[in-house]
Amino acid sequence: MQKLFFLLGFFLLLTSCGSDDDICLSSESTPRLQVKFKNEAGQLTKIDSLYINVDYGNNTLTNILAQANAETVFIPLRIDDSPYTDIYFKTAKDGDSSKVRISYDKNAVYVSPACGFKINYENLKSELIKPNPLLNVESNHTSLTDESKVNFYLRF
Amino acid sequence: MKAKSIFISAFSLFSVFAFSQKKSEAKKQDSAKWKYTPNFIIGADVLNLGAGFFGDRKLYQGFISSRINRRIHAVVDLGYDKNIYQKNGYDAKADGLFLKAGGFYMLASDPENAFNGFYAGAKLAGSFYSQEYMAIPVKGRNNEGISVSLEPSTQSSYWIEGAIGARIQVFESNFFIDVNIQPRYLAYTTKQDGVTPMIVPGFGRSSGSFNMGFSWNLAYKF
């Protein structure tokens, strides 16, 4: 009889360890666009102050970054049906903003029960719709499946 | 949810009454040589049947068992389960039939009635079901409520389960109450587009491989 209860406790323990369907680590989520900055000479540089707003398709711009001495920034792209994401860059809070349209091909990749799907982006292309203060967008790595590689270099 | 809890609680109390009843008469001991004679106990899970009225899960299951040895009983379970999963951005439903086959060993039986006692056993189980995932969440920052849907499909899952329980005769009748818990391990499941099923009929929540089932059966001995 004692063995029976011991066995019961053991199985209950296993059961309680098994229910992890709530936890999704952010590293298993959709990867973000990685952007670095270059100066006129083509060397990596920092931006004194940088403001980034993104249009996620809900009629308002979402401010995702307001940073001094920006060296590397990560920008989450849209995961809905839109084939592009519009990103607005400013170097002063009340200054002009540049509009860059990043277009891509998406595919949904299944991750786990907790995380569901994530989006991988291929064929990343940039289009500088409104220059100033941003002058040039240089493409580097056109595939975005993790956050390890620089996708675009920006020159202000 | 509250009504369901009260319902389950009431059943637990019933079990206590059944276990505490006194035997009035001593019956004959089993003869030294045990010979198989056709004997069957057919049971239906009334707890989950009733709980179906209070929750989203409709689980109907029953079993047939036969004593094949002095202490060993063979048992086959058959059931139908219909369930939904709406959590963390998921919206899914599944329904289908499941079958379990195995045996159990009477650990401690009543000397007056060999069908009474505590038992432990194991079963192999399979479920054949149709599922539909209306929504599976897509995780991304600053993007909420985006999901992927899958076409309805037919899948199957297989698991092993233990059975630990007790079987008690109701007074002098041919009726028995059979209460058991079933710790389960999902061994194999077919997947649609690589997606791990969140619910498997007969198994329950399947995002983790381990699960626990409970049944409260009213059985009749032929």
Describe the structure.
The complex is a heterodimer of chains A (156) and B (222). Chain A has 156 residues and is mainly beta. Chain A has one domain (31-155). Chain A is built from one helix and nine strands, in the order αβββββββββ. Chain A has one helix spanning 2-18, and strands at residues 33-38, 47-55, 61-70, 72-75, 84-90, 97-112, 116-130, 136-139, 152-155. In chain A, the strands form two sheets. In chain A, strands 3-2-5-6-7 form a five-stranded antiparallel beta sheet, with no helix packed on it. The mean pLDDT of chain A is 84. With 222 residues, chain B is mostly beta strands. Chain B has one domain: Porin (Beta Barrel). Chain B is 11% helix and 56% strand. Chain B has helices at residues 2-20, 46-51, and strands at 41-45, 58-67, 72-85, 91-110, 113-137, 147-148, 153-169, 175-189, 199-200, 204-205, 210-221. The longest helix of chain B is centred in the N-terminal third of the chain and has 19 residues, at 2-20. Chain B is elongated. The model of chain B is unreliable at 23-28 (pLDDT under 50). At the A-B interface, α1, β6 and β7 of A face β5, β6, β8 and β11 of B.
Strand order of the largest sheet of chain B: 1-2-3-4-5-7-8-11
Low-confidence stretches of chain B: 23-28
Biggest interface and which pair forms it? A-B, 40 and 36 residues
The Cα radius of gyration of chain A reads: 22 Å
β-strand amount of chain A? over 45%
N/C terminus separation of chain B: 37 Å
**Major sheet details of chain A:** 5 strands, antiparallel
Strand order within the widest sheet of chain A?
3-2-5-6-7
End-to-end C-alpha gap of chain A: 77 Å
Average pLDDT of chain B, rounded to a whole number, is 85
User: What string gives the helices and strands of chain A in order?
Assistant: HEEEEEEEEE
- In angstroms, what is the radius of gyration of chain B? 20 Å
Regions of chain A with pLDDT < 50 over 5+ consecutive residues? none
- Proportion of β residues of chain B? over 45%
Largest sheet of chain B: 8 strands, antiparallel, barrel
The DSSP helix count of chain B reads: 2
The portion of residues assigned to helices of chain B is 10-25%
Compute the average pLDDT of chain A.
84
What letter string, H or E per element, gives the SSE order of chain B? HEHEEEEEEEEEE
User: Which overall shape of chain A is indicated by the principal axes computed on the Cα atoms?
Assistant: elongated
